[in-house]
Amino acid sequence: xxxxxxxxxxxxxxxxxxxxxxxxxxxxxxxxxxxxxxxxxxxxxxxxxxxxxxxxxxxxxxxxxxxxxxxxxxxxxxxxxxxxxxxxxxxxxxxxxxxxxxxxxxxxxxxxxxxxxxxxxxxxxxxxxxxxxxxxxxxxxxxxxxxxxxxxxxxxxxxxxxxxxxxxxxxxxxxxxxxxxxxxxxxxxxxxxxxxxxxxxxxxxxxxxxxxxxxxxxxxxxxxxxxxxx
Length: 230
Fold this sequence. Notes:
Layout: E1 5-9, H1 13-25, E2 29-33, H2 36-46, E3 50-54, H3 62-72, E4 76-81, H4 86-94, E5 99-102, H5 107-121, E6 129-131, E7 134-137, E8 142-147, E9 150-153, H6 158-169, E10 175-176, H7 177-184, H8 192-208, E11 215-218, E12 222-225
Parallel strand pairs: 1-2, 1-3, 3-4, 4-5
Antiparallel strand pairs: 6-7, 7-8, 8-9, 10-12, 11-12
């Protein structure tokens, strides 16, 4: 775990300083930011192994920052928040947070969660995500399917890959169309009809690889990705 770089994005100066001091003491390298815009800039510049990200931040809030991180990275993210409602937790997880920690928290608890995530996640290198026969490789930004003759790569567009990878992180969960647009598209996002077209094309490619039934459409609700082998 030694020498791993942790980015702390937290507007509370006292809390940020306390966390930085504690994590430095146990051997991590630390970079800090007091608002979302600087935090995102530091993320792109320093490429940390893990981000501790507050949800309530000046300039750009934690959800915006997380959304930007997840557009092209699977870097580990622990969201921190004073809110403990199910809807708030669901929003964090839907956007791709790896963990949620409620404030006020103990620095030893945060440290252990960081160590656990780094141990499972390979220290910032995105590990492959498997849903049944489907394999997502975030490092290569690619997807393939286990076949009798070996792994068969799916020829996906960038948008199709983002949608598939996002759903694969939370396989079995039903995603509202608005959630997918918010998580996988830039700006204001496309119309729902455009999203539906992408999903139709994606299902066709999955079907060609023998797993078309992995992608389910819930009429008037959204989509989910499931392992249909069992």
